[in-house]
Structures are given as structure tokens and as C-alpha cells.
Amino acid sequence: MAEVEPLRVLPGRRLEVLDQTLLPSEERYVHLAGIEAVCEAIRSLRVRGAPLLGLIGAYGMAVAASTDASGPELRAAAEAIIATRPTAADLAKGVHRALAVAGEAAGDPAGALWKFASEFARQRAVEDRAMAALGASLLRPGDAVLTHCNTGALATGGIGTALGVIRAAHEAGVLSHCYATETRPLLQGARLTMWELMKLGIPATLLPDTAAATLIASGRVQAVITGADRIAANGDTANKVGTYGLALAAARHGIPFLIVAPSTTFDPACPDGSAIPIEFRAGDEVGGFAGVRWSPAGGGAFNPAFDVTPGALITAIVSERGIARPPYGDSIAALGIAPEGRRTP
Amino acid sequence: MAEVEPLRVLPGRRLEVLDQTLLPSEERYVHLAGIEAVCEAIRSLRVRGAPLLGLIGAYGMAVAASTDASGPELRAAAEAIIATRPTAADLAKGVHRALAVAGEAAGDPAGALWKFASEFARQRAVEDRAMAALGASLLRPGDAVLTHCNTGALATGGIGTALGVIRAAHEAGVLSHCYATETRPLLQGARLTMWELMKLGIPATLLPDTAAATLIASGRVQAVITGADRIAANGDTANKVGTYGLALAAARHGIPFLIVAPSTTFDPACPDGSAIPIEFRAGDEVGGFAGVRWSPAGGGAFNPAFDVTPGALITAIVSERGIARPPYGDSIAALGIAPEGRRTP
Question: Which of A175, B65, B85, B323 is the most exposed place for a label (fewest CB within 10 A)?
Fold first, then answer.
């Protein structure tokens, strides 16, 4: 059980999410009473993290069905939820799986959806533990690692993907230190990852994104470990913007660059990274934070939420089904991952 | 003449610097009445930028001499000023040149130092124009460029180094667009470079440091141009932290990575980058800005002010004496640069 519950269901099917935009200064839960609230919470990043978005997609459909479980209403809800974060493969899959469950439910679609979401959450926690154990096996005793963005309990609802590996390595006594990037513009590393690392008692150091390449050049870290938002059939991986630069530095200095993501994050329907849609976010996220502006008014901004790291730069991709290694076309297929994240026969 | 005066001398030998920590929201000049105020202004980055630090080193010695021009006092002042920013080659050189002037001055060392500093400033402006013209010649019509940190008038007292090239290219109608990184942790790109670009009417876009690699991968920029804080004999270059990551991305995507710096920034006494001292700054610059904290209290921070880009990744180094190209040992020597920045015979 994670020390942090990013999502909880209180009696009376009351769905609440921990408002991550307020961390680390405040822990406040927000009640998602309807589909509008669900979409707003996703769009404004109160709830974020690729695998957790899969859960919120499923729970969001349960919330929608509790109001109106008719087919047209549920399809409209599904479209609205998916449209909030177009790059996030898990979100769309969580919603689609929920839609299928509702379509097959006899009599009580809302009940079936709440049950499905709850079982999905349990399964996610089990998958995180499996990934963590596999990923930790790739580290050597005494290794220090660098991670980016937030991929812990706050991102998955389990113990996390990349941060789950780091936690498992710490628990096994293998990890010496974890370095975390700030992760501009939304600072998930500084706000969320450092908070989780300190809660878990893992020795941790924060750095500006600008210092990552020289940190790697200095020999202080022996691996870079990140999560993923979408993985194409050839291993090209979309993840939080900044990941690609870390992969370039890791490759230059010959240290492993590891991706950790559940099988739902793989999208074999995308042949390569160029087919992954990249979300561009509002320009005012750049040049300021939390109401403080540090750039002059009126300038333009380039603000992609994600970048794409070519599979060739990725040493290994760890999923709950096993570890894929280059060349990824075959090794990903060998994990039994087919379109829609279903296991191939 | 630059639209912005980062340093000015008012009647009565009153040295004032524009407090760059308050930009872009406020333009306020600070009077540097004595050596303590000079050191504080450098340490707290009210005045910053490698070439401008050379000028402030010279003017700071003039301020010191106006109080007490004795040899021991001037040597103590020189040590105090140099100790404020140990990586900055220009600062130490400006101070050492001033010390030499004072040693040779007959009768009125303070007067000689004020005159020297003023002539030094005039020469800096001429050098900037020369570098700008040389650097702009390396761009092709329609090029968009990416720059890092602040290297404009605010950094040099002239029109700037890298930003001087960008300005000259804009004036020549060659430049299509300038992208500027935020430059965490002190955000000189967001605060200062965007302010200068908008003042100059240059089409400009701000990006988080994390987005630089994907910007380059997207083909939106045709060159990366930065300044330098110290250049070793083999071309290895210390510059604002984050520069090295930009150089890796530029090399990966085959676009030019250009360094623009006056000859005083070269340090032939440093054989390579490993001999360049790197300043580590206070950890509280990371995880927050301007009094706003976004990381939990008590975490450690990795906060080097500079990183080192290997000469092999640098397409060309532009100085006021000409353009050096790899291999740099010979091409830098051919510019006539010897230890202490003096022209070789």
C-alpha cells in the first residue's frame, strides 16, 4: 500500500483525487462529482501521471454512468475525457475498457463500472510491484540514479513506475542515491518526486533541468530511469518533455537509460515516434509559476508537454510482462503486447 | 549605443549598476559606493555576464582606489573581487589589468583607474560589434536560432556576444526568429534575454530548458548560439549550466553550435575543460525562485553554475579577433591569444 493515495473512493461512490497542483505545500482532496469535474481535474493536472490517468479514465466513466448510463451519454463522456490529454495512451485505454464493460453489463452498468475501476486499481498496484522488481534487477549495488518528472505513487496509484523501481532498489539496499530534475515547466520533479522520495526516506538531491547533462558527465549517476506516456512499436517513447535530452546525455556517457511503463502504455498501432501526437500546452506555463511571472508579458512560448526519445537510445524498457531490449520491434512483440494493450494469443 | 545601460558612471565618479535581479519587472540602479558594495553586487548577480564582469572588475578597482589607493589595499580589493565568482575569467582579468595600471600610474592612481575603466568599456563595445558582424556571417538568410542564458547588452555593456550576433543578424535581415531558454535556476533567459529581444523588436519565443532538445529535433532552429565564461586552450568551453546539453542535441541533429566570446574569455593557461574551476552555488536557488518555494524543505540540491562543453562539439568559436574552428588548439593560437588575454607577438 502506498503512503500516498492519489485517488480514493469514499462511501456513497464519492470519487476524490488528491489535488497535485497544491503539493507539496498542501494535501487537499477534490470531489469529482460529475464528468465536468473529472475533465477539469485532468486538464488542470490535479490528477496526472500516465498510469493514474488510466485509472481516472475508468473511474471517470463510473462517475458518468452514475448520472446517466445510456449508451449515447457514456460515449459522449468517453470522448470528453479522452480529449483532455490527447497524448496519454493509458487514459484512452482506461476509458475504452470501461466503455466495453458498460456495453456488456446487464442491468446495472454503473455498478459494473465501479467494480471494474476498483479491480483495475488493484491490478495496477500488482503490476507496479512486478515492474519495480524487474527494474531493480538491472541496477548494481551502490548505484545512484537520475529520474525525471514524477512517476511514483502520485503518478500510478501503485508504488510507481520509474520511482517504483527506485523505491524497490532502495528497499533492497542496492540504491545509494536518487537525483531528481525539477522538470520545468510544471516542476513535478521538484514538487512531487522530491516529496515522495523524502517521505520514503530515500537519499535525494534536486537539480535544475539544465544541470542534468553535467551531472551525468561527472559520473555521479550510473543510470537514468524515467516513465513513459506512449511507446511505439519500434520502441520510440514519448515521455515528459526533457526526457530526450537526458537520453542523449546518457548515451554520450555510456550509462543505461531505462524506461519503466506498464504494458498499457505501449501502442503497437503507432509504428514509430513520428506517429505519436504531441500535446502543446498553454504558453503561460512558461516564464512563470504559481502566479509569479518572471518573463516579460507578450512574448510567445514553445511548450510541448512531451518529447520523443528514439528507441535506439533506450537501453531497456521494463514492463510488468518483462524487459524489452533493442531492437524493440521484436522484443516488444515478444512481451505479447498487441493493439489496445491486450495480450496476443 | 545599447538601449540598455547595465553600468553607468554619474558625475562625481558615482558608479551605478542596473540591478538585474529585479528585471523585467523593475529598472532600478544601485550605487556601488565601496568595495563591499561592488562584491555584494557581483555575488548576488545584480551585475552578471562574463564580459560585463570584466568591466565591473576594472570599475570596482577604480572605486577601491578612490577610497585608498595604497598597494596593499588595492591588492586586498583585487582578491576580494576575484573571489566573488571564481569561474569567471573576465572578472579576474579586468581586475589584474586594473592592478597593473595602478602600479604604473604616477601621482593619481585613482584617476588612472577611472580612465582605464572608461577606455575598457569603449573597447568592449567595439569588440562586441566586431564579434556580432563575424558571427552573423555564419548564419544563412531565414535562419532561426536558439540561445541560452543572457548574453546581450545586460551581459557585456556593448551589444552582447551571442545576443549581439543575433541582433546583428536581425538588423541585416538574415534572422527569422530567436528562441530563448528560460535558463534555470536563475532564469536569465526568461527574465533578461526575452526582455532584450522584445525591446529590440526581434521575433522571440521562450521555452523551458526541458524543451530545447525536442525543439532542435523538430527542425525549427538552424543553429544554437551561446556565450562563454571560460574557454580552454583546446576549445573546451565553460558556460552557463545547460549549455552542454544544447551542444549534445545540436550535434545529434547536425546543426551548428556556435560560441561567441571576446578574447579575454579565452584562458590558454587551462589546457582543457577539466582544469576549469566550476562554481557551485547555494542549493536554495533550486526548488524555488523569488521567494516562492516549490520543493519540500530539507532536500539537498546539485547546483553548478556552469558546465563544460567539449571543443569537439563546438562548430566555431567567434571572437573579435576572428573565428576559430576545430581543432581548436591551433585555431585559437592562430588568433594570437596568449595567457592573460594579451596578444602574442
Answer: B323
B204 beta partners: B178
Residue of B nearest to A304 (CA): B211
Domain boundaries, chain A: 7-127, 129-341
Report how far residue B219's alpha carbon sits from residue B215's, in angstroms, rounded to the nearest whole number: 7
Rounded Cα distance, B15 and B47, in Å: 12
Quick one: pLDDT at residue B43?
96
pLDDT of res. B34: 96
Strand partners, A7: A17
Asked if A7-127 and A129-341 have one fold, the answer is no
Q: Assess contact for A194 and A227: CB atoms under 8 A.
A: no
Question: Which CATH number is correct for A129-341, 3.40.50.720, 1.10.10.410, 3.40.50.10470, 3.40.800.20?
Answer: 3.40.50.10470
* Under 8 Å between Cβ of B131 and B262: yes
Between A132 and B89, whose confidence is greater?
A: A132
| Interface probe with B: pick from A181, A193, A210, most Cβ of B within 10 Å | A210
Residue A338 is predicted with a pLDDT of 67
In the predicted model, is pLDDT for residue A2 greater than 50? no
Contact A308 B214 (CB under 8 A): yes
| Secondary structure (3-state) at B146 | strand
